């Protein structure tokens, strides 16, 4: 079992030994450290924190532990209950809160949960801020409030509707065109909060949703990472229902992937490409994605006269570079859309509205839209970490072996070949080395990944 403390928050498996898993004691410890840090930063009389969760089975237990820990620190809590990551992100500034906590392990299986921590802008904390919280958690400096100074919990379960209101207000969301297109869409909500939010959004846009796994009970019907191999039921449903497309999100609704009318994946990498194409066609500018994302975003950005830049992996890194380069849209190739006109966070609701606006205006099928973009193919593989694997040493060896190629080392090692690339890095969210490749064909991408994995295994033997 595992407890991972990283730029992506405090993530671990439920149960087991304290300090090695996300036990109740660990949840209280890290919630205490966050609340204590927040009070140090903000230095005011009253504090407010927004808390929401996805539908995973452990969510209610962890949320009650976290909220009452904050209450013990004298912090008032706005309880959103079942929510989405982007909903909590927009709620923080709307509530004039000092921060927010999202209880979700994103794409991880049901035995995982996590505390994702936000600042007063509703954005993820920086690496330095996260490190400070980890330092506080291991110290004995925390003090709690006396009985007359305890915080209070206020429930507000209207925020998914309010989030949808905010999406519909975006100038580039063409509700009229979407309504006229009369789309029929199958939605796979992986039995989490996307099953609440996405159908509601579609109905407000005049789209007919067919619900698949939209009961928010936390019993994921398949691996919750929205990849092709996990989505056979969605593919079959799209064809059976003669739908215009399929939509799938991860459990906390910050990742988004589409399926075409034939039941074929649009490609989660191309979620951002399509949304950026639409936004750039209306408001030219720059884009940012991370180093593990497709070159197609660069191609589309340059087609519209903008500049593309790549950041280290991690939403906070993408956001930082977007602000620096004044990017008008960005995100991650895993289906994460960041549209600053809304907020600086990955948001599947925003992505759905922009994608459907593009599709409605172009009056073409999803498969035709996909065929209109530069064609790259990715392989996303991983190597499970064991105690004898020294990741840093392996990356150094790979860097040395390929020192005649174009190398980028701001986040693991990325090797750029003429017609392909490979990115090797230790995951922030799982005990694995990620091996991502991209090439002109799927066969070449898979072959490159397999070759690199064999090389890595030869180093560690």
From TrEMBL:
Its EC number is 5.4.2.10. Residues 8-140, 164-263, 270-374 form the Alpha-D-phosphohexomutase alpha/beta/alpha domain. PANTHER family: PHOSPHOGLUCOMUTASE (ALPHA-D-GLUCOSE-1,6-BISPHOSPHATE-DEPENDENT) (PTHR42946:SF1), PHOSPHOHEXOSE MUTASE (PTHR42946). It is an enzyme of class 5 (isomerase). One of its GO terms (biological process) is carbohydrate metabolic process. Keywords: Isomerase, Magnesium, Metal-binding, Phosphoprotein. Belongs to the phosphohexose mutase family. This is Phosphoglucosamine mutase. Its cofactor is Mg(2+). GO terms for molecular function: magnesium ion binding; phosphoglucosamine mutase activity; phosphomannomutase activity. GO terms for cellular component: cytosol. Residues 395-453 form the Alpha-D-phosphohexomutase C-terminal domain.
């Amino acid at each position: 079992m595992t407890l991972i403390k990283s730029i992506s928050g405090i993530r671990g498996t439920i149960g087991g030994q304290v300090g090695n898993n996300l036990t109740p004691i660990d949840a209280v410890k890290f919630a205490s450290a966050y609340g204590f840090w927040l009070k140090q930063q903000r230095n005011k009389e009253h504090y407010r924190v927004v808390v929401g969760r996805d539908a995973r089975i452990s969510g209610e237990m962890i949320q009650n532990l976290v909220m009452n820990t904050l209450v013990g620190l004298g912090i008032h809590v706005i309880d959103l209950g079942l929510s989405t990551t982007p909903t909590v992100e927009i709620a923080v500034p709307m509530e004039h809160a000092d921060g927010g906590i999202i209880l979700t392990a994103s794409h991880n299986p049901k035995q995982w949960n996590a505390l994702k921590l936000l600042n007063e802008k509703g954005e993820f904390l920086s690496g330095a801020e996260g490190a400070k919280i980890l330092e506080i958690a291991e110290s004995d400096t925390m003090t709690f409030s006396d009985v007359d100074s305890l915080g209070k919990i206020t429930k507000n379960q209207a925020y998914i509707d309010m989030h949808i209101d905010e999406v519909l207000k975006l100038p580039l969301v063409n509700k009229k065109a979407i309504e006229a297109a009369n789309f029929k869409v199958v939605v796979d909500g992986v039995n989490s909060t996307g099953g609440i939010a996405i159908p509601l959004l579609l109905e407000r846009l005049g789209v007919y949703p067919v619900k698949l796994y939209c009961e928010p009970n936390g019993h994921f019907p398949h691996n919750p990472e929205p990849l092709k191999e996990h989505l056979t039921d969605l593919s079959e449903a799209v064809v059976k229902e003669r739908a215009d497309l399929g939509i799938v999100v991860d459990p906390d609704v910050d990742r988004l992937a589409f399926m075409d009318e034939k039941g074929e994946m649009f490609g989660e990498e191309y979620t951002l490409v399509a949304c950026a194409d639409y936004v750039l066609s209306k408001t030219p500018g720059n884009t940012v994605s991370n180093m593990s994302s497709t070159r197609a975003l660069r191609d589309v950005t340059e087609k519209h006269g903008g500049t593309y830049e790549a950041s280290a992996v991690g939403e906070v890194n993408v956001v930082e570079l977007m602000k620096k380069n004044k990017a008008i849209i960005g995100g991650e190739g895993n289906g994460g859309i960041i549209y600053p006109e809304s907020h600086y966070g990955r948001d599947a609701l925003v992505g759905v509205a922009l994608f459907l606006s593009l599709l409605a205006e172009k009056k073409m099928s999803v498969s035709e839209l996909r065929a209109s973009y530069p064609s790259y193919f990715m392989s996303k593989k991983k190597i499970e970490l064991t105690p004898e694997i020294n990741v840093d040493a392996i990356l150094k060896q790979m860097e040395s072996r390929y020192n005649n190629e174009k190398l980028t080392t701001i986040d693991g090692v990325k090797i750029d070949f003429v017609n392909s690339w490979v990115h090797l890095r230790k995951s922030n969210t799982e005990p694995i080395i990620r091996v991502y490749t991209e090439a002109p064909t799927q066969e070449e991408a898979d072959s490159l990944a397999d070759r690199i994995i064999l090389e890595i295994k030869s180093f560690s033997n």
